[in-house]
C-alpha cells in the first residue's frame, strides 16, 4: 500500500449538510438482512468526531443519549454551527439487537462465534507503518496527521471480512479510524459514570469530557488487550509516534478515543440521557467542532487511575452475593465489602477489598459463580502486571 500524499484534508470543502446512510451488512445468511444507519453532519474540512452507541447491543443508555444527540445535531446543522464533521451511529450493532435467546436479550457477545462485539477489531498500525517510506513524513505535525489518517482509512477499506460480524467491525472502524475524536458509548452492569482512555489521550482534553459528564472514575491503559474499538482508533498513533516520531517528523496524538460508560444497564432515563447529550455537545463545542460557547469546567486531572489498578473483588465460592457497599463508596484495603452466602449450608464467605479506592461498579446479578466478579474498586496501585486488563 502506498501512502496518499495528495489532497490535503482541508482542501476539499463540501457544503454543510446532513447525510443519512443506511448500509446493508454483507455476509448475512440467505434470506436475512441487517442494516446500519450512519448520520454524517458538516463538511469534510475541520476536525472530525465519531460517536457511536450500542456496540454492546443490550446497553441502552447510550442509544437514548444518541437520540438526543441527533436532535441537537439536526438543529445545530440548520443553524450552520457545525464547523467540522460529526459522524453519529446511534445503534451500532444490528446483529446484537436481533439476538434474543430464551426470552433474554444477548447483546454483548456474537452468538455465532462467542466473540465479544467490542473485541477483535483490526489494529491497522502495523499496516500503515509497513507502508511508510522515507520522506513521507515531514516537519509539519498537522500534515503528518492528515497523511496518517488517510493511510489508516485506506488500510481499513482494504480489510476483507468473511463474516457479518467482521463486516460490521470493518464498517464501524472505517468511519472512525480517520477521526480526530472518537466517543464509544457503553454502560456497565451497575456503575457510576466512568471513562476508559489511554495515558496519551487523557491530558489532551479527555479531562474536560470527564468533568462535563461528572465522571467519578477514569481508567488509563496503554493497551488493555483484545483490540477493543477505542484502542484500535487511538493506540496505532502511539506506536507510530514511538517508531517514527522525531523532532523533524513529529507525530501527534492523532485520535483521542474514549469509551464512555454511561452508568449501569438499568440507568435508562430520558432526563439523564438529555443531560449527558448536552454535556457531549458542550465538549464538542469546547473542541471547536461546533461553533457555540461552552462553560469552563474544573480541572479533574487527578481523577484518572490505572486500569491495571482496578481491584476486582471476586466470589470465593458460588452463592448469593450480599453487598455491604454502594456505588460511589470509598473503601480501604481489608474492608468487608461483600458476603457470599451458601443458602444450603448457611455458610457465609466474606469478601474483602485489596485496595483503597472508590467502588465504581457492582454486578447486577446476585447469583454468583465461583470466582465471578462481584464489584470493582478504583485503586491507584497496579495489581495486574500481565494478561488482558478488560473482563470478558
Ligand atoms: Zn459495553
From TrEMBL:
CDD domains per the UniProt record, alphabetical: M14_PaAOTO_like
Domain Succinylglutamate desuccinylase/Aspartoacylase catalytic: 46-225
Any GO MF annotation of the entry: hydrolase activity, acting on ester bonds
Top-level taxon: Bacteria
Cofactor requirement: Zn(2+)
Secretion signal, residue range per the UniProt entry: none
Keyword annotations from UniProtKB, A to Z: Hydrolase, Metal-binding, Zinc
Keyword Zinc applies: yes
InterPro entries: AstE_AspA_cat, N-alpha-Ac-DABA_deacetylase
Keyword Zinc: yes
Transmembrane segments: none
Record Pfam families: AstE_AspA_cat
Protein name, UniProt field: Succinylglutamate desuccinylase/Aspartoacylase catalytic domain-containing protein
